[in-house]
Amino acid sequence: MPLYKSFTINDGTRLLVWKNTESLEDLYAAVKLKDACVLRMSGMKSELHRKAFLGVRMLLQEIGYSDFDLFYDAEGKPHLTDGMNISITHSYSFSAIIVSRQNVGIDMELRREKVITIAEKFLETEFAYLDPTHLTEYVRKLIVLWGVKEAVYKMISRSGLSFKQNIEVPLFLMEDAGGVAKVDFEEIKEQYPFFFEEIEDFTLVYCLG
User: In which element (H, E) is residue 87 found?
Assistant: First the structure.
């Protein structure tokens, strides 16, 4: 079933995951899109991207929304017309959304060793507790860290916010499936809880503001 997972995080927050197993034609027939989104989707060269785009709209429909309820601000952050907060992610065959009364961010990443080659671009203090000699665990933690910083960035959505310089993730344990992210940027000096889950070959991370 394409609706892979749906759960309530707290009284005002819900997370849903969609696995795109249907054909592009079936997905397209199942959703209603604004004219601007029809045009946007027609410009996507990859069928995978089109299916991910439609998967997000399928998730919206699962909880009573539609493409017509979704809009983006000048920073590219998505919003819902009823004032609820939303964050969106998609990776290969998966799409996911988190909808909440509070500010939220979500990210989903494929676990692969390629993350090692870009780690220095988004990490600094975190290297102090990472152990590259245990490759599998190292990659798992790098993916979580990348996902956390992506989720925090989406949640705050401010130009100039640096993964490396402004978002720090103190030591966390994989078995805890969560931790805190510290943000020091302009007037923001906060700690935000994050949570993660490994789904098949992917890691899903969400952050609560």
Answer: strand 85-91
